[in-house]
Write a structure and sequence with these properties.
The complex is a heterodimer. In chain A, the strands form two sheets. Chain A has a seven-stranded mixed sheet with strand order 1-3-2-4-5-6-12, with helices on both faces. Chain A has a six-stranded mixed sheet with strand order 8-7-9-10-11-13, with helices on both faces. The longest helix of chain A has 23 residues. Chain A is built from eleven helices and 13 strands. Chain A is globular. Chain B is mainly α. Chain B has 13 helices and two strands; from the N terminus they run ααααβαβαααααααα. In chain B, strands 1-2 form a two-stranded antiparallel sheet. In chain B, helix 1 packs across helix 10, helix 2 packs across helix 10 and helix 11 packs antiparallel against helix 13. Chain B is globular and about 70 Å long. Classes of the chains: A alpha/beta, B mainly alpha. Chains A and B meet through helix 1, strand 8, helix 8 and helix 9 of A and helix 1, helix 4, helix 9, helix 11 and helix 12 of B.
Chain lengths: 364, 310
């Protein structure tokens, strides 16, 4: 009897365990949080998050009321809402517009599995959301497949430059090379060894643009400077980023920079070795208050503002937006806690002005 | 390539490789003990994640690194109890229950991180400790004898585990239970008790592995391990269930990873081959596994729950 009971339990317990944990995996669907990170950010969003658990068939699509006073916006993103990088930049941008557009916001973060994300996006589409932001270039094919099934729902995806010629798809991208160029020039001026360390995840998208811009900016100041990027091959491997930073330090690099949510590992190495760090995507001052010189912060709010205005006007897609230093879609935030020499700050200001007015051309 | 063969670069490369190999070594040593007793634990990665979070959270709240590491180890111990209960006492299929533990660790550590921490903050990491006299040896001193305490602990555990497995009565019982549990049982060895103990010890090692991984970067992130626990399980096969072999595998994996990064940073590996090169540690380990593992036999009762006849 006892053995029989054991046998039953042995079958049931693992199944229950798997079921329980599966429910807690694969990201969370939450109301957009109020960030404790510094600006740019605005209102907290105590919103009503739907539970994207069961996808309804496309035919059951409700008609979202674009003209209604409340706009429902969903964000689906690959990393955590508090990643101090890519995902947080979008969540903060939408939060910033909450009051202006009377937004009801839902966020599903950690959707690194595209197939799961597709299910979540479809569920949001069936639940009457006006705008679904698929924040990651990996979601492109999902949007391309789903958007025609939900013609009354507006989709936005990025960073990318294609709307697939679909009338209900917006695309957005960022000229991250511009901020990279400015920060690379500053890094070259701060470096004594004339060896810079810049770390990326995979040589694609805004990460590659930033890294290329960073080295171009550095070489514009000191043509012989060493600026060889290292791509770790992973967006999320913290220890590999830390190891890459360590190898740079060993190779005499005295200023570091990097992009992707895993840079937290590299920032730790910069902090340990008391080296200047340049961030991108979001402000990283909280991670190393004495080491972060500046961060290129993506402020998607002007773009999301335009998208929401279009939706309210009945236009559901068809436009590609680009965030730049010129349109405040990307902003260089200086860290007051870092003692930046006046001539370096002046150079940065001059480059920002030049890029904005077109007198400085940044290679892509 | 000449830049690579300078003393400074070689020293830091080897030292970093050893540090990077440490979590693999700890987790794989723990898994070796369990597998020698016939239990395969695929939940290592989940245990490492939970332990890494426990270490991080304790360090964040108390700023006491020793306490934080103990919290990580204790989390491993606790998960060892859970794993033993499911795999040994309830005789569940070990592969499935291990995956369950992994998924639990992955999801629950992410949940705790989101609810208890929110915006991530870095913690202090374990400083390198120089071993008197030895750290002064040219080249070798910088490579091997200026590491953190967890690195020393991991490598000290290799001879300890070897000794315990091969030279003690307890080790003999572990091997007997892993090879022929029925025979061991007939001689009065409690198969259940031995397997419980190996799983608890092994999971505690996994907890230390999570703590050492956390201490390397100084910050927690969702899915911090990036499947390192599964690589550790593979390294047990690579090392043919022998602690020294497991250490060789962990060092190979860590060193190749760091050499690749160093070559990238020196421009030796061109940018267009960067992503391909990133796969090198895994490819080399798998190739070595193919050539080496077939020469050794796994514990005969590995993966089989034991039920006394009659």
């Amino acid at each position: 009897m006892h053995r029989h009971l054991d046998r039953k339990l042995s079958l049931i317990l693992p199944a229950v365990l798997v079921a329980l944990v599966a429910a807690s995996c694969g990201g969370s669907s939450t109301p957009a949080p109020a960030s404790s990170a510094p600006s740019p950010s605005a209102a907290a969003a105590p919103s009503t998050a739907p539970s994207p658990s069961a996808a309804a068939p496309a035919s059951s699509e409700p008609s979202p009321s674009a003209a209604a006073t409340t706009l429902k916006v969903a964000i689906v993103a690959p990393s955590a809402v508090n990643d101090l990088a890519f995902t947080q930049s979008m969540v903060e941008a939408v939060n910033k517009l909450k009051g202006k557009f009377n937004l009801e916001i839902a966020v599903s973060d950690n959707q690194f599995v595209v197939a799961t994300a597709a299910n979540v996006i479809q569920t949001y589409a069936t639940q009457g959301f006006n705008l679904i932001i698929a924040h990651g270039s990996q979601y492109g094919s999902t949007i391309q497949q789903l958007a025609p099934k939900f013609p009354n729902v507006s989709f936005a995806w990025g960073t990318a430059g294609s709307t697939f010629d679909l009338p209900n798809v917006f695309a957005y991208q960022v000229n991250s090379n511009e901020g990279g160029y400015v920060q690379g020039a500053m890094a070259a001026m701060l470096s004594k060894s004339k060896v810079l360390g810049v770390i990326g995840p995979i040589a694609v998208g805004d990460a590659k643009l930033y890294v290329d811009g960073f080295c171009a900016g550095a070489k514009s100041v000191a043509s012989s400077i060493s600026c060889i990027p290292v791509y770790t091959g992973s967006f999320s491997d913290v220890s590999l980023m830390a190891a890459a930073a360590t190898t740079f330090v060993a190779n005499k690099a005295d200023v570091l920079s990097g992009t992707a949510q895993a840079v937290v590992g590299a920032i730790g190495i910069a902090k340990t070795n008391n080296l200047p760090w340049f961030g991108t995507q979001w402000t990283q001052v909280s991670l190393a208050p004495s080491n972060v010189v500046s961060s290129q912060v993506y402020d998607w709010s002007p773009i999301v503002d335009e998208i929401l205005t279009d939706i309210k006007g009945g236009k559901l897609g068809g436009t590609t937006f680009t965030a730049t230093l010129g349109n405040d879609g990307a902003v260089i935030q200086f860290n007051a806690g870092f003692n930046l020499p006046a001539e370096v700050k002046a150079k940065a200001d001059s480059l920002i002005k030049g890029i904005t007015d077109g007198s400085v051309s940044v290679p892509k | 390539m000449n830049q690579f063969f300078t003393l400074d670069v070689l020293t830091v490369t080897v030292a970093s490789g050893i540090a990077l190999a440490t979590p693999f070594l700890l987790a794989a040593l723990g898994e070796t003990i369990g597998q020698r007793s016939g239990v395969i634990n695929l939940g290592v990665d989940g245990i490492m994640l939970l332990a890494a979070f426990a270490t991080y959270y304790t360090a964040l709240r108390t700023e006491n690194l020793l306490l934080a590491i103990l919290a990580g180890a204790a989390t491993g111990t606790l998960m060892g109890v859970v794993t033993a209960l499911v795999s040994v006492t309830l005789k569940a299929e070990q592969g499935i229950s291990g995956i369950g533990v992994y998924l639990f660790g992955l999801g629950f550590s992410a949940l705790l991180f989101q609810k208890l921490v929110g915006t991530p903050l870095p913690i202090a990491t374990l400083p390198p400790v120089g071993i008197p006299f030895l750290e002064g040896i040219p080249v070798i001193g910088g490579m091997f004898f200026r590491q953190s305490l967890l690195v020393y602990l991991a490598f000290l555990l290799v001879p300890v585990v070897t000794f315990v497995l091969n030279r003690t009565t307890y080790g003999l019982k572990i091997r007997a239970v892993g090879e022929n549990p029925a025979a061991a049982d007939s001689l009065g060895v409690s198969v259940e008790r031995i397997r419980w103990s190996t799983l608890i010890i092994g999971s505690t090692f996994s907890g230390l592995a999570g703590a050492s991984l956390l201490m390397y970067g100084g910050i927690f992130q969702v899915n911090l391990t990036q499947a390192e626990g599964f690589i550790a399980v593979a390294l047990v096969y690579f090392g043919a269930w022998r602690p020294v072999g497991v250490m060789a595998g962990a060092l190979l994996y860590g060193l190749v990873g760091v050499v690749i990064l160093t070559w990238k940073s020196l421009g030796i590996i061109p940018l267009n081959a960067s992503d391909l090169a990133a796969t090198a540690p895994a490819v080399i380990t798998v190739l070595a596994l193919l050539f080496l593992a077939r020469r050794f036999r796994q514990p005969a009762a590995l993966g089989r729950p034991y039920e006394r006849e009659g």
